[in-house]
Design brief:
Elements: H1 12-44, H2 54-61, H3 71-84, H4 88-104, H5 122-138
Helix pairs in contact: 3-4
Length: 139
């Protein structure tokens, strides 16, 4: 168990060495991330077309010809299909992206006004109304 007696404060040389190692690791991670981003960008901007396989067959079943679609368009279609099928993450991604696009263009997204109504006495009111209507019919 740690306490004041056994705490060890690194010397300035040790602290410098720890910081240097952290900087090296950070630089390596940054380079890997940049490399991954460049590779993904190159793939998405390429002229690759999908003309066969499971993805092609799936879209063909929906009547969509994807042989002329770019990979970005296919990714967007996949995102849309996932959202339509109830994938909340896909829907959230689409909404967040849509808001970013709207904000960049200076357009604000529409606001929906919701009014809360107290329906706690609704059943009682409907019962009494129904009872009065039946009484009126009998007379």
């Amino acid at each position: 168990m740690a306490n004041i007696e056994n705490l060890r404060v690194p010397t300035s040389e040790e602290a410098r060495e720890i910081g240097r190692k952290g900087g090296i690791a950070s630089g390596k991670a940054r380079k890997e991330k940049a490399s991954l981003r460049k590779g993904l960008e190159a793939i998405l901007n390429s002229d690759i077309r999908i003309t066969k396989g499971a993805i092609y067959d799936t879209y063909k079943a929906y009547g969509i010809d994807i042989s002329d679609k770019s990979l970005v368009e296919l990714a967007n279609l996949g995102l849309l299909f996932g959202a339509v099928q109830g994938n909340a993450t896909n829907y959230k991604t689409m909404m967040e992206t849509n808001n970013e696009i709207l904000e960049e263009n200076g357009i604000t997204s529409p606001t929906i006004k919701i009014e809360l109504v107290d329906n706690s006495n609704l059943e009682k009111t409907l019962y009494e109304t129904n009872k009065h209507n039946k009484d009126d019919e009998r007379q």
